[in-house]
Amino acid sequence: MGDKHYLTAGLEYRRDNSEGTRLKKKGTPVAGGSAYNAYDEAAINYTAVYVQDEFKPDEKWLIIPSVRYDYSDKFGSEITSRLATTYNAAKDIRVKAVIGQGYKTPTVNELYHFWEMYAANPGGSGQFFEGDPDLQPEKIFKL
Protein backbone atom coordinates (compact mmCIF):
# COMPACT_ATOMS: atom_id res chain seq x y z
CA MET A 1 0.00 0.00 0.00
CA GLY A 2 2.95 2.32 -0.39
CA ASP A 3 5.63 3.62 1.94
CA LYS A 4 3.15 5.31 4.29
CA HIS A 5 0.97 2.27 5.05
CA TYR A 6 1.67 -1.11 6.65
CA LEU A 7 -1.41 -3.34 6.54
CA THR A 8 -1.88 -6.34 8.83
CA ALA A 9 -4.83 -8.74 8.53
CA GLY A 10 -5.62 -12.10 10.00
CA LEU A 11 -8.04 -14.87 10.90
CA GLU A 12 -8.50 -16.68 14.18
CA TYR A 13 -10.31 -19.90 15.02
CA ARG A 14 -10.43 -21.66 18.34
CA ARG A 15 -12.62 -24.21 20.04
CA ASP A 16 -13.16 -24.08 23.80
CA ASN A 17 -14.03 -27.67 24.68
CA SER A 18 -14.48 -29.33 28.06
CA GLU A 19 -15.93 -32.59 29.33
CA GLY A 20 -16.04 -34.53 32.57
CA THR A 21 -17.64 -34.72 36.00
CA ARG A 22 -16.73 -31.14 36.87
CA LEU A 23 -18.97 -29.68 34.19
CA LYS A 24 -22.66 -29.05 34.80
CA LYS A 25 -25.11 -27.51 32.39
CA LYS A 26 -28.85 -27.05 32.92
CA GLY A 27 -30.38 -30.48 32.41
CA THR A 28 -27.18 -32.46 33.04
CA PRO A 29 -28.32 -35.98 34.05
CA VAL A 30 -27.32 -36.79 37.63
CA ALA A 31 -25.92 -40.33 37.98
CA GLY A 32 -26.47 -42.13 41.28
CA GLY A 33 -28.33 -39.17 42.77
CA SER A 34 -25.16 -37.06 43.19
CA ALA A 35 -24.12 -34.05 41.16
CA TYR A 36 -20.51 -35.13 41.77
CA ASN A 37 -21.05 -38.21 39.59
CA ALA A 38 -22.73 -36.38 36.70
CA TYR A 39 -20.84 -36.26 33.41
CA ASP A 40 -21.33 -33.63 30.72
CA GLU A 41 -19.53 -31.85 27.91
CA ALA A 42 -19.67 -28.40 26.33
CA ALA A 43 -17.97 -26.61 23.46
CA ILE A 44 -17.96 -23.10 22.03
CA ASN A 45 -16.45 -22.28 18.63
CA TYR A 46 -14.91 -18.86 18.06
CA THR A 47 -13.95 -17.20 14.77
CA ALA A 48 -12.48 -13.74 14.22
CA VAL A 49 -11.26 -11.59 11.34
CA TYR A 50 -9.22 -8.44 11.86
CA VAL A 51 -7.41 -5.75 9.90
CA GLN A 52 -5.06 -2.95 11.00
CA ASP A 53 -3.31 -0.18 9.09
CA GLU A 54 -0.19 1.53 10.41
CA PHE A 55 -0.33 4.86 8.59
CA LYS A 56 2.68 7.19 8.82
CA PRO A 57 1.75 10.46 7.07
CA ASP A 58 5.13 12.01 8.02
CA GLU A 59 8.13 11.40 10.28
CA LYS A 60 6.38 12.66 13.43
CA TRP A 61 2.95 11.00 13.18
CA LEU A 62 1.85 7.38 13.34
CA ILE A 63 -1.90 6.62 13.10
CA ILE A 64 -3.19 3.07 13.60
CA PRO A 65 -6.87 2.31 12.90
CA SER A 66 -8.08 -1.27 13.33
CA VAL A 67 -11.31 -3.24 13.19
CA ARG A 68 -12.18 -6.77 14.35
CA TYR A 69 -15.19 -9.03 13.76
CA ASP A 70 -15.77 -11.78 16.34
CA TYR A 71 -18.26 -14.63 16.03
CA SER A 72 -19.17 -17.29 18.58
CA ASP A 73 -21.70 -20.07 17.98
CA LYS A 74 -23.09 -19.39 21.48
CA PHE A 75 -23.05 -15.58 21.65
CA GLY A 76 -23.33 -14.39 18.04
CA SER A 77 -21.20 -11.65 16.52
CA GLU A 78 -19.63 -8.35 17.52
CA ILE A 79 -17.58 -5.73 15.70
CA THR A 80 -15.01 -3.72 17.63
CA SER A 81 -12.61 -1.01 16.55
CA ARG A 82 -9.66 0.98 17.83
CA LEU A 83 -7.81 4.12 16.84
CA ALA A 84 -4.32 4.81 18.18
CA THR A 85 -1.90 7.61 17.39
CA THR A 86 1.64 8.56 18.34
CA TYR A 87 3.23 11.96 17.83
CA ASN A 88 7.00 12.37 18.20
CA ALA A 89 7.15 15.92 19.53
CA ALA A 90 10.91 15.86 20.13
CA LYS A 91 13.76 13.35 20.29
CA ASP A 92 12.82 12.21 23.83
CA ILE A 93 9.15 13.21 23.91
CA ARG A 94 6.40 11.05 22.50
CA VAL A 95 2.66 11.69 22.92
CA LYS A 96 0.25 8.77 22.55
CA ALA A 97 -3.53 8.46 22.52
CA VAL A 98 -5.81 5.45 22.11
CA ILE A 99 -9.57 5.07 21.88
CA GLY A 100 -11.19 1.71 21.39
CA GLN A 101 -13.62 -1.01 22.24
CA GLY A 102 -13.11 -4.38 23.85
CA TYR A 103 -15.16 -7.57 23.78
CA LYS A 104 -14.75 -10.84 25.71
CA THR A 105 -17.03 -13.85 25.76
CA PRO A 106 -17.29 -16.20 28.75
CA THR A 107 -15.35 -19.47 28.53
CA VAL A 108 -16.87 -22.94 28.94
CA ASN A 109 -15.42 -23.08 32.47
CA GLU A 110 -16.86 -19.68 33.41
CA LEU A 111 -20.27 -20.88 32.25
CA TYR A 112 -20.45 -24.50 33.42
CA HIS A 113 -17.57 -25.48 35.74
CA PHE A 114 -18.67 -27.21 38.96
CA TRP A 115 -15.82 -27.94 41.32
CA GLU A 116 -15.35 -28.24 45.05
CA MET A 117 -11.73 -27.72 46.15
CA TYR A 118 -10.76 -28.89 49.61
CA ALA A 119 -8.27 -27.21 51.90
CA ALA A 120 -4.78 -28.74 52.17
CA ASN A 121 -5.18 -29.47 55.90
CA PRO A 122 -7.83 -31.95 57.09
CA GLY A 123 -10.90 -30.30 58.55
CA GLY A 124 -10.12 -26.98 56.87
CA SER A 125 -12.70 -25.22 54.82
CA GLY A 126 -12.57 -25.66 51.07
CA GLN A 127 -13.67 -23.47 48.20
CA PHE A 128 -16.46 -24.07 45.75
CA PHE A 129 -16.41 -22.84 42.18
CA GLU A 130 -19.60 -22.93 40.15
CA GLY A 131 -19.93 -21.42 36.69
CA ASP A 132 -22.79 -19.11 35.76
CA PRO A 133 -24.62 -20.26 32.61
CA ASP A 134 -26.33 -16.86 32.38
CA LEU A 135 -23.08 -14.91 31.87
CA GLN A 136 -23.03 -12.66 28.82
CA PRO A 137 -20.11 -11.18 26.87
CA GLU A 138 -18.30 -8.21 28.39
CA LYS A 139 -18.05 -5.02 26.33
CA ILE A 140 -15.93 -1.97 27.06
CA PHE A 141 -15.28 1.43 25.52
CA LYS A 142 -11.99 2.96 26.61
CA LEU A 143 -10.44 6.37 26.04
Structure description:
Helices cover 3% and strands 59% of the residues. The protein has a six-stranded antiparallel sheet with strand order 1-2-3-4-5-8. The radius of gyration is 23 Å and the shape is elongated. The chain starts with a strand and ends with a strand. The mean pLDDT is 87.
Key words describing this protein structure:
143 residues; mainly beta; six-stranded antiparallel sheet; two-stranded antiparallel sheet; 59% strand
Largest sheet: 6 strands, antiparallel
Q: Please state roughly what percent of the residues sit in beta strands, choosing from under 5%, 5-15%, 15-25%, 25-35%, 35-45% or over 45%.
A: over 45%
Question: Which runs of at least 5 residues are low in confidence (pLDDT < 50)?
Answer: none
Arrangement of strands in the largest sheet = 1-2-3-4-5-8
Distance between the termini: 29 Å
Question: What proportion of the residues is helical, as a percent range?
Answer: under 10%
